[in-house]
Amino acid sequence: MMKHLQDTITLNNNVKMPGFGLGVYKVEDGSTVKDVVKNAIIHGYRSIDTASFYDNETGVGEAIQESGIPREELFITTKVWNDQQGYGNTRKAFHHSMERLGLEFLDLYLIHWPVKGLYKDTWMAMEELYKEGKIRAIGVSNFHQHHLENLMDGCMIKPAVNQVEYHPHLTQQALHAFCKKHDIQLEAWSPLKRGGLVDEPVLKQIGEKYNKTAAQVILRWDIQNEVITIPKSTKEHRIIENASIFDFTLTKEEMKQITNLNINERSGSNPDRFD
């Protein structure tokens, strides 16, 4: 169990990934994303999650350079977008991402969505980049169980991570169990359901007991469920608040109460219908 913001989870290839990080979806490139990433790093975050689709890799890269933190202490994730998929395109997209980030190596590269007929070729290119030592770990995002099964049928390297929408209204228990069984680490995007859970009475009630917000209760639930989580915020006080979850522990009963809020409701697209 994580006890500190910089504690790590060991992936299936023995790479250690921080269990808590910062997501930068929809954060504007340039000074905005730069300030956000620098603030997060100052306050102890070591994992930053971006994507070519977010169009802010340049700013993220500049923040990394200016942070003063040794590169090997940071864990950087980016993703290959849907129109960049396929074998040759993926290799090209990777090099463009690395140029924008200004990095020598990447910690984690993900397939952003399972584009039908392409994601296996995309994976082949990623396996090669991994073997060439350019990426420390490769994984997927928004993959249902059937996508994972299809990918693992014939692949040489099993995904280390599956990053999916995950929160108390979408607990993905069957997918989580499948990933655990196959030693694929689940990671949560939109852990706070884009703000759609902050007024949930159960979460507020549990929060009152520990003097925590509903958001902090959710993020604690993630961690106790052994799900890596990357809440996004542009506000410094919220970045600090999101990470202030290591001084309390939810009881088994409270964990169950939160899990029971599940209604299989998404705030984003369903991976079977994302086009």
Break the fold down into its secondary structure elements and pairings.
Layout: E1 8-10, E2 16-18, E3 22-23, H1 31-42, E4 47-49, H2 57-66, E5 75-80, H3 87-101, E6 106-111, H4 119-131, E7 135-141, H5 145-152, E8 161-165, H6 173-181, E9 185-189, H7 201-210, H8 214-224, E10 228-229, H9 236-243, H10 252-259
Family: Belongs to the aldo/keto reductase family.
Binding site for substrate: 112
Active site: 54 (proton donor)
Q: Within the largest sheet, what's the order of strands?
A: 3-4-5-6-7-8-9-10
CATH superfamily: NADP-dependent oxidoreductase domain
CATH topology: TIM Barrel
User: How many helical elements?
Assistant: 10
Choose one word for the global shape.
globular
**CATH architecture descriptor text:** Alpha-Beta Barrel
> Which spans have pLDDT < 50 for at least 5 consecutive residues?
none
Q: N-to-C SSE series?
A: EEEHEHEHEHEHEHEHHEHH
Distance between the termini: 37 Å
Q: Please tell me the total number of domains.
A: 1
Strand content: 15-25%
Biggest sheet, in brief? 8 strands, parallel
Gyration radius, in Å: 18 Å
